[in-house]
Write a structure and sequence with these properties.
The chain is α/β, with parallel strands linked by helices. The protein contains nine helices and ten strands.
Length: about 250
Amino acid sequence: MAEKKTPALLIEDNRYCPGCGHGIINRILAEVLEEMGLADETIVSLAVGCGGLMMYSFGTDWIQAPHGRAAAVATGIKRVRPENCVIAYQGDGDALAIGFSETMYAAIRNENITVIIVNNGIYGMTGGQMAPTTLPGQKTATSPKGRDAETTGLPLDVIAFMKERKVGYLARGALHSAKEINKVKKYIRAAVENQISGGGYALVEILSPCPTNWYMTPEAAMKHIETTVESQYPLGEFVKNGVKINA
């Protein structure tokens, strides 16, 4: 059996909570960039939130974006350095609440960037408050009786918005099993390849556990994604090479 080595891009242990999905995603992204020979050519636009902890352990060049503006910062980087691989790395609160306009307009303009949105259904860093992605009935710090969809609306499905736009690549994956993690790696690689080929905007949304703010064990949080979260957020590829493939 081939030895599995830690990617050189992971320069120190991550600082995420035990069971958090960000560490898995960071590992996958590091593997993809190294396998594609892009480790030294990549610039990451980092969001404010749990994803920002990536700056301490991920060895690419990066810029800390203002809250919600990672896609706008990534757009600026790519326009002045088109030869680089540019990635916006965001949580769902950063990308889909305060940053929803920047996220959507980067897609509407079909900017040639790769965006990774980590969807854990809450505001993780600030105490587990309700987010645009919180499920109906889900208890959070600001919805202790469960999210009331009649009052606050249904969860925001960014893929549903974007697949009607002219974009290069859209996919949604999850982290609850080795099989699904391997699919996430495939999606991230496809999103990066889309950028390298000049295919325009690419987004990979990833359903990720937050055991700390879900008040679950890591095992239970993974199971919750499989049994509950996926029913709200279907998995798969939705646009590839600019063509809608999963209506």
